[in-house]
Each structure stands twice: as structure tokens, then as C-alpha cells.
Automatic annotation (TrEMBL):
It is found in: Cell membrane. Residues 131-202 form the Single cache domain. It is a multi-pass membrane protein. It comes from Didymodactylos carnosus. The lineage of its organism: Eukaryota, Metazoa, Spiralia, Gnathifera, Rotifera. This is Single cache domain-containing protein.
Length: 215
């Protein structure tokens, strides 16, 4: 997703979609597409901890300025959104300041496209009341599997972005690199038939889960 966006714009772009975990309020990288030199050091699940940027994001303001990162100067554009349940997510794009591309149009285009990709996933399932999906990444901060993209709703009808897997049997299976299937799995107060499949991405654990609501 994010990697394909880089191919359409510029391979030097730094792109990430970041989600606030409800466990420790840390921001973790959910989707990442950055330079080859840093791809493996900042995988999904790694903590976004740049205070100058987070101070602005936490005020729900757009961050845009030149910023030094990875020993290089970038023009950074970060756009936050507050989910209905209070969690903050944000999208951030960095373009090297020495790039020949127009910094304004390039970063705004990239931000718009990554938002379109993420919300496009939600729209695929928005009218499906029984079938749900969640993309989890394992947080390097809490070691928990955090929902970074999900169509699962809580009892108040809010998406459960930032929630973690609490079922110990599921967690143990995933930590051992095994998929897990259960027929009566409680997820946010509802019973589902659930399938959790673990994958490795940049040497870190991600999980795709699908759910069918029990009648």
C-alpha cells in the first residue's frame, strides 16, 4: 500500500500511518514506507517518539516544517485525526529538502492517497454487519498486538482502533508463529468465529484477523 504510493511519487519519500495504543498511549507505526536504509530499523509496531512532532499532533494540529531526521533534512507534513472513541491516528510524509519535486503538492498528494487507501479498506466492509476484519501490529513498547485498522465496533458502535488482543490463547499462538481459529471468541463484547493469521514484515509480527459474528 504505502510502498506502491512511493513508486507513484518518489522513492525518497518517508511515509507512515501511526496509531495511538490504548495500552500505553504510545504511537506505533502501522503502515510504513521509508528509505531502504531505515526500512528494517523502523518497522510496523515500532514507536513513533519524535517529541517536536508529537507535541503538535497531540494538539490535533497539522505539523509542517523542515525537520532533520536520519541525518538528513526533510520537509515533514503530519495530519492527525481523532477517532470517535478518542484515539488519535496520524499520517505523516517526509520529502528531502533537496528534492527537485514541489514539496507542497507532493506531500499533500501523498497524504491524500494514504488516507484514501486506509479509508478505502473501511468502505469495503462498511455495510457488512457480520463479517469483520482487523490488521494488528505487535507494539515494540507493550509487546501487545494492537488493532491499527479494524472494522470491529465496540458496544457503543465505535471502531476499536488502538485496542489490543486480550485472549491469552490467541496471543500465545501468535507469539509462537501459529494461526489461531476459535468459534466463540469474545471481541469487544461480542462473540465471533475468528481466524488470526500471523505474518512477518521487516522481522516484526503483524496479524490479519477475520471474524464472523455468531448469531
Amino acid at each position: 500500500m504505502a510502498s506502491n504510493l512511493k513508486k507513484k511519487t518518489d522513492k525518497t519519500l518517508i511515509i507512515s500511518y501511526d496509531v495511538q495504543s490504548k495500552t500505553d498511549s504510545k504511537y506505533i507505526r502501522a503502515l510504513v514506507a521509508i528509505t531502504p536504509a531505515t526500512d528494517k530499523s523502523l518497522p510496523p509496531g515500532s514507536v513513533f517518539a519524535t517529541p517536536e512532532i508529537l507535541n503538535v499532533i497531540n494538539q490535533e494540529k497539522v505539523f509542517q516544517q523542515d525537520f532533520s531526521i536520519f541525518n538528513q533534512s526533510y520537509y515533514e507534513l503530519g495530519v492527525p485525526f481523532r477517532e470517535p472513541d478518542g484515539q488519535i491516528v496520524f499520517y505523516i510524509v517526509g520529502l528531502p529538502t533537496n528534492s527537485t519535486l514541489n514539496r507542497i503538492t507532493t506531500t499533500r498528494y501523498a497524504i491524500g492517497k494514504i488516507i484514501e487507501y486506509v479509508y478505502g479498506l473501511y468502505n469495503l466492509f462498511k455495510n457488512n454487519k457480520r463479517n469483520k476484519f482487523t490488521y494488528y501490529v505487535k507494539s515494540q513498547s507493550s509487546s501487545q498486538y494492537v488493532a491499527v485498522i479494524t472494522t470491529v465496533e465496540n458496544e457503543n458502535g465505535q471502531l476499536t482502533t488502538g485496542d489490543s488482543i486480550s485472549n491469552t490463547k490467541v496471543v500465545n499462538a501468535l507469539n509462537n508463529g501459529k494461526e489461531f481459529h476459535g468459534n466463540n471468541i469474545n471481541v469487544s463484547g461480542r462473540s465471533y468465529q475468528a481466524l488470526y493469521k500471523p505474518y512477518k514484515l521487516f522481522h516484526t509480527n503483524i496479524v490479519l484477523a477475520s471474524y464472523i459474528l455468531n448469531q
